[in-house]
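EI: anyone free to look at a 217-residue chain?
SC: sure, send it
EI:
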Amino acid sequence: ISDEGMNHPYGLCIGRGILDDMQKGYRGDSLTTYAMQLASAGADARMAGADAPVVSNSGSGNQGIACTMPVVAVAKKLGVSDEQMMRAVTLSNLMGIYIKSQFGRLSAFCGATVAGIGSSCGIAYLPEVENCVFNMIGNVTGMLCDGAKADCALKIATCTNAAMQSALMAMRGIRVLSTDGIVENDVEKTISNFATLGNEGSVTLDQIVLDMMLKKQ
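SC: here you go
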């Protein structure tokens, strides 16, 4: 699905646009750029209805793309073994499932934030997983879901960029501290705070978003 999005102009062309920016010198040819490119290209194609299979995560194809492709991109760039890549991808998807299981079936929060936490953990791998969670929840919590549409690819690109930054920080031993916002010293409590915001805040936020969409001229 990512190849499909890179080879054809679907939706907002976020993935192709990132590559074009890189070729023009507007972006560097980095791990982050490549991860954003592959993840968003998959969502470009999927949201435009491309005829290509996608493995979902927690019932979401976009979340499956966002949990998987950033990790695959980093693995390809670093030249790691297939086994290492599969373990990292598995970790990313399991983290996505675990966090999403604490939300209801639907939430006003964008699923790319959950998938971004998973992919950050997969990129950094085991020793730094907790720090990735702290860094991601301290960063992109609150990105709202306003329907399935072309700009989902843009949100996935944003969360992939955040995932890379969080993973690199974690590997340097840097984390958002418990003195900051909703982040606590305990990773489980931090995830619980994230889920509580998504669950208890969703009713009001969903209604406000729906009203805005229905009142468009």
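EI: The chain has ten helices and no strands.
SC: 👍
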